[in-house]
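Dear support,

I submitted the protein below through the web form. The confirmation email said the job was done, but the results page showed an empty box. After a refresh the structure appeared. I'm attaching both so you can tell me whether what I see now is the final result or a partial one.
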Amino acid sequence: MTTYQGRFYSCEEAETVPLPVQQPRPPVTIAAHGPKMLRIAAEHGDGWSSWGGYDIATEEAFYAVTADRSHRFDDLCVAAGRDPASIRHSLVCFPPLTPWQSVEYFQDMVGRFREIGIDEFVLYWPQTWEPGPREDAVFEEVTAAVIPRLRAGAGPAVRA
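What the results page shows now:
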């Protein structure tokens, strides 16, 4: 039972039915981009999720804004007394990124983002935004060979 009295809402002995099967409770990931939400995610989240933004036109801008947010998030974690490494850093891979362009592109993308602290990737199904005849083959190879290698800790190819 939960009782809460807040500025905008309140509840008296609210019951959660059914309770989570997972113990401890399922992890909570908070999407955050601006200062207030980054602080809330740093203080309370089990995971933090980000994406570039609709105004991001180039891959380099996507990498730059993600690096800036990741560093700000990590600083906010430290200020809140939390180890940034204990909180998942998730990234939605959204245009202008093209993860299914080639296996090499995928490995390079993952490697670059891992260097700035991203450890979880949310990927859209191939050909979501535009037809890409090779995307299905790249997807198959990445899921069959690259992702298992990443999970085993082998890491992606390092950028030159």
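Response: this is the final, complete result; the empty box was a page-load delay. The longest strand covers residues 88-93.
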